[in-house]
Amino acid sequence: MIRVMLVVLGTVATSLATGPATAADGKAVWDKSCAGCHAVMAPKTSDKAAWAPLVKRGAEDLTASVMKGTKMMPPKGGAKTEEDVRASIDYILSQMK
User: Which one of 13, 23, 30, 90 has the fewest beta carbons within 10 angstroms of its own beta carbon?
Assistant: First the structure.
């Protein structure tokens, strides 16, 4: 659990230190703000079955959830803006279909 927390904190710190990716580039936002944690924490980026229930919820609901944060994920998941969050969600949902 400590290791996971360190990964999350490291990813968020790196994201904050290097500045925001543009909201127009969902993949860049995902790679910078989300991929590090989702490589080791559920739902893992490569697990389409784990993402299936989230895909069904839709981008609007997921954006609201990510903006608040959930479990180990901080608010905005480490992204800078709501536009960045939405772009990253649009990107990952397109990859999970």
Answer: 13
